[in-house]
# Entry
Amino acid sequence: MTITEQSAETEAAEATCCGRHDSPAAASDDESPETPRERVNRRWNEVLQETRVAQTGVQILFGFLLSVAFTPLFRELETLDKGIYVTTVVLGASATGSLIAPVSIHRFLSGQRMKDELVEAAGRLMMFGMVLLALTIGCTLLLILRFVVPGVLAEVLVGGVMLWFGLCWYVLPLRLRRRAERRARTQDA
# Structure
């Protein structure tokens, strides 16, 4: 089975993983329709661009986290704060692994005519990596704010920031997706 045949057969399955915006109903009437090969190539290029943005952020944050352990104040941290630090570093390393994995997968599968599977796996790894990145940022904030802000205020501020991430990164895109699906259904009816 060729990649274009696979793409046409798996289009409905791909819609469940970050691909609903690629459905034919989402295209405007003015645009010429994409072939399955063009669509998978476009989606792969989009994944690469998204990966570049996320990788830069996670790598800068991870580099900062690694340097913290070598500062004089690190020895003065309480046991809880050292635990938060270790958790943060492990989350940062995991986020880095998830966000760089699409590159490795592409290297191993290049030329195997598996771009559909590659795009799907990369999309899932990106989503998982973004969750890990959000948790890394939240733990980093918690570590810093517990050192700077007295009392429970640090936890409250971190909770607010994590809520904001959830709204911006997950709730808003899902709402926009549902709105587009409703609009497509009413246009089809």
